[in-house]
């Protein structure tokens, strides 16, 4: 009779891939679990938007691999990132995949999760404060408000075929629209929303470098959005918030005659 010792050993169990949200930049917004995983990790695969202060929490012995993505230029294609995570985990190396904001909000976390599952690699998701939530809080801009908005939508401003997207109903009375990655297409976004029936006088806030020391909050009207982004030399990362709630932001108004245009907006909405 075969004994336990005679049985072939099981293959090595893959290590876990941790998809960790690093939040919008301020290291004090990290979860306790995220801090622990970062400090214990031996391999950290991180986005370009993860701040240096957060990366500094890693062990001196950890290997840090940047897979930064920029508009039309990626240091590592997504398929290669997926393969790196799977290969490392199958080799028995526990991996922290550190992503700006939250892994499941425009972070491609779902794609990486699928790749790991397909390879039999266990995955743990550690949520993070999303860029929208963090930046809005820093600007004291409530994304919902009983007097202004009872619904919030998140969209990506870099999507292909922007003019063909159906954004009807996402912005307007009682609604807030938060646009990620919309700096380069701000003028087209404004034109698209206005063409879909949104008032040109609807308030807009642009939140640049949210939660960081160099954060800027700028406020204007939808009709001026594209021009304002150019005038003020707004750079990524930045969020665009469209809706009445933008009036609450602690911001610098950058459109002459803001108060008068607000009155016009009220007339337009009535």
TrEMBL record:
Pathway per the UniProt entry: Porphyrin-containing compound metabolism; siroheme biosynthesis; precorrin-2 from uroporphyrinogen III: step 1/1; Cofactor biosynthesis; adenosylcobalamin biosynthesis; precorrin-2 from uroporphyrinogen III: step 1/1
Superkingdom field: Bacteria
GO MF entries: uroporphyrin-III C-methyltransferase activity
GO biological process: cobalamin biosynthetic process; methylation; siroheme biosynthetic process
Key word Transferase present: yes
Limits of the Tetrapyrrole methylase domain: 16-225
Main enzyme class: transferase
S-adenosyl-L-methionine as UniProt keyword: yes
UniProt entry keywords in alphabetical sequence: Cobalamin biosynthesis, Methyltransferase, Porphyrin biosynthesis, S-adenosyl-L-methionine, Transferase
This enzyme's EC code(s): 2.1.1.107
Family: Belongs to the precorrin methyltransferase family.
UniProt-recorded name of the protein: uroporphyrinogen-III C-methyltransferase
Organism: Sphingobium xenophagum
């Amino acid at each position: 009779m075969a004994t336990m010792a005679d049985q072939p050993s099981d293959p090595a169990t893959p290590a876990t891939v941790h998809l960790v949200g690093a939040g919008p930049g301020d290291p004090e917004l990290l979860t306790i679990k995220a801090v622990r995983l970062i400090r214990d990790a031996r391999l950290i695969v991180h986005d370009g938007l993860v701040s240096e202060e957060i990366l500094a929490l890693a062990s001196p012995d950890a290997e840090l691999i940047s897979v930064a993505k920029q508009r039309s230029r990626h240091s590592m294609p997504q398929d290669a990132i997926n393969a790196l995570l799977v290969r490392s985990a199958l080799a028995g190396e526990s991996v922290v995949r550190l992503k700006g904001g939250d892994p499941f909000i425009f972070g491609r976390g779902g794609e990486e999760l699928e790749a790991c599952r397909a390879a039999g690699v266990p995955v743990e998701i550690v949520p993070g404060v999303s860029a929208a939530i963090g930046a809005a809080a820093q600007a004291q801009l409530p994304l919902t408000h009983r007097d202004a908005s009872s619904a919030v939508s998140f969209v990506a401003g870099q999507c292909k075929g922007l003019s063909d997207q159906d954004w009807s109903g996402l912005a307007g009375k009682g609604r807030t629209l938060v646009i990620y990655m919309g700096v380069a297409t701000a003028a087209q976004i404004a034109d698209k929303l206005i063409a879909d029936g949104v008032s040109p006088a609807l308030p807009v806030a642009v939140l640049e470098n949210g939660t960081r020391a160099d954060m800027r909050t700028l406020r204007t009207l939808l009709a001026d959005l594209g021009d304002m982004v150019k005038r003020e030399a707004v750079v990524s990362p930045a969020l665009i918030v469209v809706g009445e709630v933008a009036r609450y932001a602690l911001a610098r108004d950058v459109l002459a005659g803001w108060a008068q245009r607000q009155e016009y907006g009220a007339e337009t909405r009535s």
